[in-house]
């Protein structure tokens, strides 16, 4: 099978359907940041997303990837099911953009989206046992981070055909307003 790359508009209904299906069907992502020494670093995290193609994850601000983001907000994210079988129709997305710590109302919105996607998160935060309170304190020391994509690469062989990668730029109008 020959690989093929095609360009499509972000507004294309098939692009939207495929992209959001992958985000909806997967809860883990791999994210790549750049260190101050210009070296790549990868991390895996649970994520949630908004209809405006914002991805949010919860992380320790002192972690290596978050310290990298404080110096350089450039990030790439891959989302895919790891149990796919080679040779069968595959599906996944790569997103390229910037990521910063979410603050204020953006962090509150991230918390609501995250709680909606991961109900045990809310349950843990409201737990009353000593163990639950200790875990809640740890989680509350973490911060939400918001990733905003400007470019997306989609592999959805059921939708676009075998070996076809779809590239699309995310228009400014589709991107969320910059937080203040």
Report what the structure shows.
The protein has helices at 13-25, 64-71, 104-117, 119-125, 130-141, 157-160; strands at residues 4-7, 28-34, 40-49, 54-59, 74-80, 91-101, 143-156, 164-169. It is of the alpha+beta class. The chain has one domain: Electron Transport, Fmn-binding Protein, Chain A (Pnp Oxidase, Chain A), CATH 2.30.110. The protein has a six-stranded antiparallel barrel, surrounded by four helices. It starts with a strand and ends in an 11-residue tail after the last strand. 23% of the residues are buried.
Question: Layout of helices and strands, plus pairs?
Answer:
Elements: E1 4-7, H1 13-25, E2 28-34, E3 40-49, E4 54-59, H2 64-71, E5 74-80, E6 91-101, H3 104-117, H4 119-125, H5 130-141, E7 143-156, H6 157-160, E8 164-169
Parallel strand pairs: 1-8
Antiparallel strand pairs: 2-3, 2-5, 3-4, 4-7, 5-6, 6-7, 7-8
How many helical stretches?
6
* Structural domains: how many: 1
Overall geometric form: globular
Low-confidence stretches: none
């Amino acid at each position: 099978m020959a690989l093929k790359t095609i360009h499509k508009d972000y507004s294309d209904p098939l692009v939207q359907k495929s992209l959001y299906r992958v985000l909806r069907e997967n809860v883990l992502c791999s994210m790549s940041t750049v260190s101050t020494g210009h070296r790549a670093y990868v991390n895996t995290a649970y994520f949630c997303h908004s209809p405006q193609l914002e991805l949010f994850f919860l992380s320790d601000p002192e972690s290596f990837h978050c310290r990298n983001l404080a110096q350089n907000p450039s990030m790439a994210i891959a989302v895919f099911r790891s149990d796919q079988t080679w040779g069968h129709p595959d599906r996944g997305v790569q997103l390229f953009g910037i990521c910063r710590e979410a603050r204020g109302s953006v962090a509150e919105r991230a918390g609501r989206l995250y709680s909606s996607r991961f109900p045990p998160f809310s349950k843990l935060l409201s737990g009353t046992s000593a163990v639950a309170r200790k875990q809640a304190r740890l989680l509350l020391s973490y911060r939400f981070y918001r990733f905003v994509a400007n470019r997306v690469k989609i592999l959805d062989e059921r939708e676009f055909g075998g070996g076809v990668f779809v590239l699309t730029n995310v228009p400014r109008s589709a991107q969320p307003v910059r937080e203040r």
